[in-house]
Recover the amino acids of this structure.
């Protein structure tokens, strides 16, 4: 697929090759390597397994996956959009604090929240115990309580930590909607939300939703723990249960094509975003004052997602942490915290530099084909982490083999068994996040800025450095922090690709959480959340600059 | 208030951002230079482990103390075989440790293990618990047993694993999902004993008897019995020891609520699985790698399996520790353990069909 794409691209361009475009093409293709390796694997012989899958479990997998996507999508949009609306349109006490607090759930990994929720909602958990004490019930047969380890539970849990993706972009879209349009609605006695805010924010909502959907499709930890048979769970059953990596790669690839469809959706949404973007002559709408009842409603709208996405899991973790010997436990994991932070910072910087080069070249130097290639280079996000890690392994194996051959055996291993392997995997997976952040920054720039600078006699690089890059600082930092948080949370690829004796907070948490030893897992999990909070707070401080 | 402070600081630093960017890039270069961590050191063996580091650390410490050989570990639950395969001849791995025969067989099928000729290993491990071509070796035994509610199920109500299909247990059984590797191996042992058709019919009835959707790990099933959600569960024997001696009082009460039942004592014996290991095909330290496997089958390590994680020794010359012995002697299914791996794909298909 990539090859056809490339040949079309080179046929179409008759101009002399531009070195920026050329290096971006090389970079994108390099990043697509692991995906290509997986697609190649999928062309192997799956031994007729599909007939069995279609006869038995495939239907369940697909239905569950679609239901999960639908459920998470609805709840996440409900949480994200309603919170974004009250935060950006109403002026009420506590709004400044809630505005950044609403981003906090982004720092909590979905697999941690699943453990916490089970602990909180199950029969022996604090909620049901309190209910039993209050009403004098004795056994589980005395009352009905919804099962948290279910499709519905998975929807709630995932939506609670994923809604910030939607909240973040939607809030900006609401804020950038010109005040005059809201005034028109007011004059015509129409709803400001349904007739102006929502339609104009739709592309932003869809863009956030696409990221949420990719997370849902590729999630393994939560659905395994909640025993919801989705496609991703099926991939692992086929791979590990039937020793059939080929069939697993085939199912992954079908899922991947599905995600490509979603990306098309995102592209469509973003292409319509043009008219939402600010023309700076328009004023942003002033926030509306609220009555006491109105304030209460605003608080409710903001606190419900926060309760599910942050306070309940944080409370559960704290309860475990405070039971142990905090000082000693912390000393023990301190080197692991350092490991995690160093790796996450290094990888985040690398990813943002790569994403910047790709986005800037695609925006200012290249045609639509390179833009599509750039978008494709961020599709690694759509594979389940472990499966993508296997793609990275196969790919790195090829590269090392090639290097060994070219160097006549001088280089025995370059990527294999080094930290480079892990960095490569992070770049392939999280390039999407950096790409999205930079792209939204570039989209906000006036279209003719680069041309103006070039006409005034600056070269491309000088224009970038003196005009464009200073305007993209905040996008760069926002992307940096998002990627940092994502890497701090990342589990499956780190687990499989790390060097010897190398622990991050996520892998350290996992070895306890895997056996449901929540007491020991709680402190490292809490550290993931706390280190994730710092960038979330910084980021929200920065996002206020768009007010 | 604090947020405003951070925000101001951030704004100021943004004004000087080229400096930040320069630092970021310098840091990035520094990290890249630090990157290629070469993992080949003499006197050190590198281990790929499917078992958590916390569980194998006591063995490693003991091994280093005895032999002076250092150890390094990568732990991951899945995909290590693919990692080893991609690394090929450049792989730094010397020893593979896994927790299930199916994983061991995967390494063997991908031709990632070196045959090992060791009189010590052959003497310490019964033939049905190691590969016929000496590529992998069982290191500890784990019995997959039935547990029942001490206060609700009579002691001899269940004798055979087949009994779980009886209508008597309708709405009373809990298990983890069927496609978990432990249940898949159990299913494979049923196929080996009765053939695919009878095994599937057993599984159908078992699923019909479930009190709730299969979920959680084995420990969660004991918890469910304690809570009264179900009366019977399938569990690996070592979970019982782990709960019984847990720091957490809650888990100790789960252990108190259950009774252990070794199944099929009058016929083929209780289904068992192994944790095991082998030497990586491209290991540069084969001698030391073999020494490590030999150490793991010796007296000290075999005892450790019992005390660290309540698993049974494979070495017939080593008696299990007192706690394990107190659970009673039992007859083991002597099916060559390789059969479980061979039948695993078929077992997974049955699991898919019956929706376990």
């Amino acid at each position: 697929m990539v090859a056809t794409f490339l040949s079309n691209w080179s046929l179409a361009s008759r101009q002399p090759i531009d070195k920026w475009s050329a290096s971006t093409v090389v970079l994108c293709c390099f990043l697509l390597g692991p995906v290509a390796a997986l697609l190649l694997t999928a062309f192997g012989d799956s031994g007729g397994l599909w007939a069995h899958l279609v006869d038995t479990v495939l239907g369940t997998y697909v239905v569950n996956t679609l239901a999960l996507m639908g459920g998470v999508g609805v709840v996440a949009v409900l949480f994200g959009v309603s919170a974004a609306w009250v935060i950006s349109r109403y002026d009420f006490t506590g709004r400044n604090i809630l505005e950044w607090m609403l981003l906090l759930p982004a720092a909590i990994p979905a697999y941690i929240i699943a453990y916490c929720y089970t602990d909180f909602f199950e029969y022996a958990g604090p909620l049901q115990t309190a209910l039993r004490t209050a009403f004098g019930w004795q056994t589980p047969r005395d009352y009905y309580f919804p099962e948290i380890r279910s499709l519905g539970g998975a929807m709630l849990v995932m939506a609670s930590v994923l809604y910030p993706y939607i909240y973040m972009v939607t809030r900006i879209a609401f804020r950038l909607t010109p005040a005059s349009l809201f005034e028109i609605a007011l004059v015509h006695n129409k709803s400001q939300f349904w007739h102006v805010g929502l339609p104009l924010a739709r592309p932003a909502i869809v863009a956030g939703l696409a990221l949420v959907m990719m997370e849902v499709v590729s999630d393994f930890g939560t659905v395994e723990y909640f025993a919801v048979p989705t496609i991703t769970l099926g991939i692992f059953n086929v791979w590990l249960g039937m020793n059939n990596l080929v069939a697993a790669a085939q199912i992954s690839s079908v899922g991947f094509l599905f995600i490509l469809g979603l990306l098309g959706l995102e592209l469509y949404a973003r292409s319509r975003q043009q008219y939402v973007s600010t023309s700076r002559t328009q004023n942003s709408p002033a926030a509306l004052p609220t009555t006491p009842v109105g304030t209460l409603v605003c608080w409710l709208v903001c606190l419900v997602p926060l309760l599910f996405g942050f306070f309940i899991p944080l409370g559960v973790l704290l309860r475990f942490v405070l039971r142990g010997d905090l000082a000693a436990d912390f000393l023990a994991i301190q080197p692991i915290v350092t490991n995690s932070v160093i790796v996450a910072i290094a990888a985040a910087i690398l990813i943002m530099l790569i994403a910047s080069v790709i986005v800037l070249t695609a925006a200012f130097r290249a045609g639509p084909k390179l833009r599509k290639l750039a978008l494709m280079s961020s599709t690694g996000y759509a594979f389940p982490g472990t499966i993508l890690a296997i793609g990275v392994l196969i790919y790195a194996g090829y590269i090392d083999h090639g290097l060994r051959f070219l160097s006549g055996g001088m280089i025995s291993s370059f990527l294999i068994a080094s930290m480079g392997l892990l960095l490569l995997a992070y770049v392939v997976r999280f390039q999407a996040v950096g790409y999205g952040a930079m792209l939204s920054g570039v989209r906000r720039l006036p279209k003719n800025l680069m041309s103006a600078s070039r006409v005034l006699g600056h070269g491309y690089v000088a224009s970038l450095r003196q005009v464009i890059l200073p305007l993209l600082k905040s996008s760069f930092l926002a992307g940096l922090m998002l990627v940092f948080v994502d890497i701090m949370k990342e589990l499956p690829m780190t687990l499989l690709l790390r060097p010897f004796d190398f622990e991050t907070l996520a892998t350290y948490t996992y070895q306890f959480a895997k056996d449901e030893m929540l007491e020991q897992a709680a402190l490292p999990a809490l550290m993931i959340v706390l280190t994730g909070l710092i960038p979330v707070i910084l980021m929200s401080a920065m996002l206020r600059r768009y007010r | 208030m604090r947020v405003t402070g951070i925000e101001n600081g951030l704004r100021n630093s943004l004004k000087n951002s080229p400096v930040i960017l320069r630092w970021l890039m310098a840091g990035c270069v520094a990290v890249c230079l630090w990157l290629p961590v070469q993992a080949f050191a003499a006197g050190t063996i590198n281990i790929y482990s499917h078992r958590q580091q916390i569980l194998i650390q006591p063995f490693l410490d003991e091994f280093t103390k005895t032999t002076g050989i250092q150890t390094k570990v990568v732990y991951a639950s899945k995909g290590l075989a693919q990692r080893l395969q991609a690394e090929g001849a450049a792989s730094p791995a010397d020893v593979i440790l896994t927790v299930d025969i199916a994983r061991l067989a995967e390494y063997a099928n991908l031709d990632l293990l070196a045959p090992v000729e060791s009189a010590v290993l052959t003497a310490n491990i019964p033939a049905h618990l190691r590969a016929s071509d000496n590529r992998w070796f069982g290191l500890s035994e784990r019995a997959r047993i039935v547990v029942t509610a001490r206060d609700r199920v009579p002691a001899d109500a269940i004798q055979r694993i087949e009994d779980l299909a009886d209508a008597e247990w309708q709405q009373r059984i809990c298990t983890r999902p069927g496609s978990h590797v432990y249940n898949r191996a159990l299913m494979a042992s049923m196929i080996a004993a009765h053939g695919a058709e009878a095994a599937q019919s057993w599984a159908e009835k078992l699923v019909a008897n479930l009190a709730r959707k299969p979920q959680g790990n084995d420990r969660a099933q004991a918890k469910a019995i304690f809570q009264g959600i179900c009366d019977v569960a399938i569990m690996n024997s070592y979970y019982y020891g782990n709960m019984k001696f847990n720091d957490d009082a809650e888990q100790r009460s789960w252990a108190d609520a259950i009774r252990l039942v070794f199944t099929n004592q009058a016929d083929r014996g209780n289904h068992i699985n192994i944790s095991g290991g082998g030497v990586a095909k491209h290991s540069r330290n084969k001698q030391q790698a073999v020494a490590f496997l030999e150490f793991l089958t010796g007296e000290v390590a075999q005892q450790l399996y019992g005390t660290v994680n309540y698993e049974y020794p494979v070495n017939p010359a080593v008696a299990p520790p007192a706690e394990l012995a107190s659970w009673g002697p039992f007859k083991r299914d002597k099916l060559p353990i390789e059969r479980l791996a061979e039948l695993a794909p078929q077992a997974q298909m049955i699991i898919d069909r019956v929706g376990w």
